[in-house]
């Protein structure tokens, strides 16, 4: 309770939480409010917004409902953002823990691999991966995670390096626990909080990367994505700018919301740490 | 107060000006073309090989047709739709074994050497027949080219070849390149492929990758007073939205090949000083086609193919995707073809209920989730319209219980997936009709084509009746009988649906009012532009 109150002390955090709640609500409500395929043709093409109240935000080049596409797009963006961040954190935590806990040659090898991944711009890596394997939702998630796991890995390693010298780790060794079990059952859970603080940055970056991939035509074509909507709207930018503006604004708000909420979490934990 | 006074003289002068301005366009047409000036236009692709004798494609012609000329060019009112270029006349023998070309006198290559029948013989035998993408089929029986004198070339065929086909092939397939440049070394590696030498009204000057191609006036051109322009500059603008902006900013004076997106045309037609022109592409009709992989059990059933044809609302496609700048298709020959088209074919009006009934009849009942079966759909990535039609087709198929999954690829991967690996169930393709079904249309239906030949029947379709018909037409010499056979071909294709023709479209040019003599032949964008001029 205390922690929640601390979180809600800053207006940024409140704004972020509000936006995120709204977004999650949009994503969850999409199949209820707009059942069926959001890419179905619902009306005349290029209907401007606020003309017909059954299609409040108008329609796109083929006559698809823009509002329905926005709602379903929120699902894709959030799903990809969260899944990619979860995958990146998982890979990063495992690699970081192994490297930090094992030390020696294993550490060297794993960290050099991490360095190698870090030197390649993550967007290029995603672009190359998707264009080789072929665009689908799973591939996009993996592609984004491939470029995002290095940060969590380095952070996890640094944490593990300090934790592995603690007494309770030595105790676990003495009672004969398997080193792998010590690493993942005793060390990792304690190394995790600072790594998790990275998650908001990773989620926001993942959402942006997904949008950029879709914009370039490398998203899953069978799903509505905001990036894909912007790309399609771009050809009619001069005559129907709203088709690009609406998903663009949604994207900006989402990334902003995730950042602000993440900031709020970091600040509230920072306050707690300084208090303790 | 002074600004409000209206003098009679001022009023008269003003109304005279007004009168003159309404009369100006007609005066402009009657005006003799002005000499000089530089025409700057948008180019959306940068072909590396600019030799139109090897790569007969519109992207290459767009630039090189001004440099390298063909034997004849398409024409709105010439005999058989042709007008002389390097050849003055052409005549086919009654037995179909030879065609005689009389060539133009006094034509010089850009390097000063004279143009002779030896150049025609060399181009035909060494390039069109063995190397050219389209010439390989049309000139497959070409055995020799006799050159009794410098201005006569006689094409000799091993098997009777319809003169009608050779005639129809002239505008696109007969680019003549200089023998003295190409006879040294390997033709494919000749430097002139990237800096072509021809007889045309313009010479190749320079190419800066990612920036522009520049052509300059050929002062020794054979056409009287031609060409009028001093220079043509192709500004490379790969982004389609930027062409419209460049036109409005007067950075370019012409955007051909629909470089301006269809959705922008309405707005741009209202910009003063710019005009939207839909003519000048009659000889370059693209067809929107659903390619079908007949190896799939469901799709090898005619009823399923008929159901898909009934599920597509062609009027919607023309109105919404092409914004009216297209026509609905009935079969494999486009409606605007004056020689071969017939409307007397089975048609498939938009009827979802009938489509559903056909699928039920074929034994593909809807499962509990409303779906009958799933398909992979590969829309060709070359045009916005083919991609949008892919999105539409997915919805149209969903309405009849077919669950289509779209697979997007880039150009190279799409060609490999469809034409080499056959990794598709349905594909959306834009084949081109080139004035004769034997040039690039029958190949879409014919069986026995090796894997990997792009824009051909790679769907595993095999129909002995159609194959026999195509073979018979390819050796029928009489034009009328041959035309009848191709009408039969259209009927059979529309009845058996080896592929589904949805729409036919051409391109749109947007040009500054200053550009004169635009769209004056059916292949204008890929013709020589010797008579194009700029008003000052």
Protein topology:
The complex is a heterodimer of chains A (276) and B (536).
Chain A (H helix, E strand, L loop, with lengths): L1 H6 L3 H23 L32 H37 L1 H16 L2 H12 L3 H12 L1 H14 L3 H8 L4 H19 L1 H17 L10 H9 L7 H34 L1
Chain B lengths: L7 H23 L7 E6 L14 H7 L7 E3 L7 E3 L2 E6 L5 E6 L13 H12 L6 H4 L3 E8 L2 E6 L5 H11 L5 H4 L19 E7 L3 E6 L13 E6 L3 H9 L5 E2 L6 H7 L5 E4 L7 E8 L9 H10 L2 H8 L5 E2 L23 H10 L11 E7 L4 H15 L3 E5 L4 H10 L5 E4 L2 E2 L3 H4 L23 H11 L4 H18 L2 E7 L3 E4 L2 E2 L16 E2 L2
Parallel strand pairs in B: 1-10, 15-16, 15-17
Antiparallel strand pairs in B: 2-3, 4-5, 5-7, 6-7, 8-9, 9-10, 11-20, 12-20, 13-17, 13-18, 13-19, 14-19, 21-22
Structure report:
With 276 residues, chain A is an all-alpha fold. Chain A has a single domain (2-275), classed as Orthogonal Bundle (MetI-like fold). Chain A is 75% helix and 0% strand. Chain A is built from twelve helices and no strands. The longest helix of chain A is centred in the first third of the chain and has 37 residues, at 66-102. Chain A is elongated. The two termini of chain A are 17 Å apart. The relative contact order of chain A is 0.16. Chain B has 536 residues and is of the alpha+beta class. In chain B, strands 13, 14, 15, 16, 17, 18 and 19 form a seven-stranded mixed beta sheet that branches. A four-stranded mixed beta sheet of chain B has the order 1-10-9-8, with no helix packed on it. In chain B, β2 (72-74) and β3 form a beta hairpin. The longest helix of chain B is centred in the first third of the chain and has 23 residues, at 8-30. The radius of gyration of chain B is 25 Å and the shape is globular. Chain B starts with 7 loop residues before the first helix and ends with a strand. The chains are: A mainly alpha (276), B alpha+beta (536). The A-B interface holds A 37, 39-41, 45-46, 61-63, 131, 134-135, 217-218, 221-222, 234-240 and B 240-241, 244, 261, 263-264, 266-267, 320-321, 381, 384, 388, 390-392, 394-395, 398, 405-410.
